[in-house]
Amino acid sequence: YEIGQGDWSSDVCSSDLFNPKTQRVMKTIETDDPAKDNVIAEHIRKGYRWDGQMLKPELVAIYKYKKPQA
């Protein structure tokens, strides 16, 4: 196998929703808006693929819905 063969790419998900197959949560931010549950708040680090295989998942911060206490 020769260095330089294969296809690598940086991987940043274009969706606003968290995808556990390609992303890892590094930080959660509580929200009282249920529509924001599992929505990406911040992209912390790009992920990387080699020949279609995930080498490093993207690191993200997501919103987590927490029901307001009455």
Class derived from helix and strand content? mainly beta
**Total count of helical runs of at least 4 residues:** 0
- Strands of the widest sheet, in order across it, are 1-4-5
Order of helices and strands: EEEEEE
Overall strand count: 6
Sketch the major β-sheet.
Answer: 3 strands, antiparallel
Give the terminus-to-terminus CA distance.
63 Å
- CA radius of gyration: 16 Å
- The unreliable regions are none
Q: Indicate the overall shape.
A: elongated
**Average residue pLDDT:** 87
- The portion of residues forming beta strands comes to over 45%
The proportion of residues forming helix, as a percent range, comes to under 10%
Structure report:
- The protein is mainly beta and 70 residues long.
- 0% of the residues lie in helices and 50% in strands.
- It is built from no helices and six strands.
- The strands form two sheets. Strands 1-4-5 form a three-stranded antiparallel β-sheet, with no helix packed on it. It has a three-stranded mixed β-sheet with strand order 2-6-3, with no helix packed on it.
- A hairpin with a 2-residue loop joins strand 4 and strand 5.
- The chain is elongated and about 60 Å long.
- The mean pLDDT is 87.
